[in-house]
């Protein structure tokens, strides 16, 4: 029964993620179709990142990838699929965002500045959903008998929750640095 429930939860998670990415793709294609005739190349020229912004962007990307992968490897022996249920959607989101950004830049789409905003806000939602899952798992473990195995599970869930909070800070930093880069250029043009 537990396996069936776990499988259903993973299917719901998969289809929720797929639905979001499909909706985001359609939204960005609509932006591309509507703005392409009006602004041919302004978005790509006005937001060219400087060296410091590129370094910050790469550092954020590297941390956003390495921290969850290392954490998943460390807590997997005690949490098992819970580690992948909490961190895999986040990692997939980073890869999908990167693919969307590369495709938009290749096509010189005027929609590419929208991509980081859409994905970072959704990534915060993913982290919140993951934190709720970890918190629920922690409460279920606390209700069980405190054996050394259950203490290790509880400790790894605490580590997972701390990592989710750290990833949330990195995500907010990334979003705010992008907005700080984007907003001054729009204020200068108006």
Automatic annotation (TrEMBL):
Q: Which UniProt keywords apply?
A: Membrane, Transmembrane, Transmembrane helix
Keyword check for Transmembrane helix = yes
User: Could you tell me the superkingdom of the organism this chain comes from?
Assistant: Eukaryota
Any one cellular component term from GO for this entry? chloroplast
Q: Membrane spanning segments where?
A: 12-35, 55-76, 82-100, 160-183
Specify the protein name: Uncharacterized protein
State the species of origin. Answer: Rubroshorea leprosula
């Amino acid at each position: 029964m537990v396996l069936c429930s776990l499988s259903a939860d993973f299917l719901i998670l998969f289809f929720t993620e797929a639905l979001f990415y499909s909706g985001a793709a359609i939204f960005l294609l609509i932006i591309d179709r509507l703005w392409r005739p009006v602004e041919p190349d302004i978005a790509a020229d006005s937001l060219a990142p400087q060296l410091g912004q590129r370094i910050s962007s790469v550092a954020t990307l590297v941390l956003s990838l390495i921290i969850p992968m290392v954490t998943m490897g460390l807590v997997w022996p005690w949490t098992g699929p819970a580690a992948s249920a909490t961190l895999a959607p986040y990692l997939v989101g980073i890869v999908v965002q990167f693919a969307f950004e590369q495709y938009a830049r290749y096509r010189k789409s005027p929609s590419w500045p929208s991509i980081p905003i859409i994905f970072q806000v959704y990534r915060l939602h993913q982290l919140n959903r993951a934190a709720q899952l970890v918190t629920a798992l922690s409460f279920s473990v606390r209700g069980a008998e405190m054996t050394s195995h259950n203490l290790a599970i509880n400790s790894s869930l605490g580590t997972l929750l701390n990592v989710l909070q750290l990833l949330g800070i990195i995500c907010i930093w990334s979003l705010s640095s992008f907005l700080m880069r984007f907003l001054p250029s729009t204020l200068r043009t108006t």
